[in-house]
Amino acid sequence: MRLRSTKLVMLILPPAIVAFAWISDKKLHWAGVVVTLFISGFGLLFIYASTLAYIVDANAGRSTAAVASNSSFRGIAGLVASEIAAPLQDTIGDGGLYTLWAGLLVVMELMILIVIWRGQRWREEAEKREERMQAPRTIDTAKSNIKS
Fold first, then answer.
1. For residue 89, is pLDDT > 80?
2. What are phi and psi of 62, to 5 degrees?
């Protein structure tokens, strides 16, 4: 449910980033930059908030570790992206750079859509695996209690 709410924003976000890219590259009126930045910022925060809520809900009992892993990955990805961005911007300009980032965003959005599509099945399979892992422990514990 949390991820399904992002579908509309997923349609709007990449074109807004591409629009920002070429408005910036062609040095058009500043109002275009402001509007596309607003739409992009709203879209990114909307998707981030929804996916973070999903991560917490999907990892009951270990949500702290899941959020920490998410934050760690985002930090490392931000570091790599910032190191790559300046040379790319010098080489291909604002238009090319942000169009490239929008393409990467589309790939990430497709991953979210795959989770929406397959997530329930994956969750059910994981729950069955956890049940199978817990069952022998219960039997072993019962045997050790009997011996005592």
1. yes
2. -140, 30
Amino acid of residue 142: A
Residue that has been written with the tokens 């072993």 in this structure: 140
**To 5 degrees, how large is the angle CA 20–CA 24–CA 29?**
95
Q: How far apart are CA 125 and CA 97, in angstroms?
A: 40
Return the residue matching tokens 């579908």: 7
Say which amino acid occupies 56: V
Phi, psi (deg, nearest 5) at residue 61: 90, -15
Q: State mean pLDDT over 59-73.
A: 91
**Which H or E run contains 79?**
helix 63-147
CA distance readout (Å), 42 to 10, 45, 85, 108, 128: 11, 5, 22, 17, 38
Q: Are 95 and 21 in contact (CB under 8 A)?
A: yes
| Packing angle of the helix pair 63-147, 30-58 (nearest 10 deg) | 10
| pLDDT on residue 64 | 92
3-class DSSP assignment, residue 77: helix
The whole-model pTM stands at 0.76
Q: What is the pLDDT of residue 120?
A: 85
Task: Compute the distance between CA of residue 146 and CA of residue 1 in angstroms, rounded to an integer.
Answer: 46
